[in-house]
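User: Can you help me understand a structure? I only have the sequence.
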Amino acid sequence: MARKLFVGGLPYRTTGDELKDAFSQAGEVATASIVTDRETGRSRGFGFVEMAQDADAEKAISMWNGKDFGGRTLTVSEARPKA
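Assistant: Let's start by predicting it. Here is the structure, written out as tokens:
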């Protein structure tokens, strides 16, 4: 079953494809998206990655949480459901 991960601390120039490529090192990525500002269209510095398998999600968290990515430190955790 797929698990959605929150990825914070992204460099503002990061693309969805770059995010997907980075997280594919941990396993199969179902989707990867960068959250953008509605008015300006610029990145807000965070996004979401959906990993195809639970084990891949755990591996991605341990691989990327607290690590440097493009000069910024990532925060990676399981995404919380919308309130």
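Now, to help you interpret it: The CA atoms of residues 27 and 64 lie 13 Å apart. The chain has a mean pLDDT of 95. Let me know which part you'd like to focus on.
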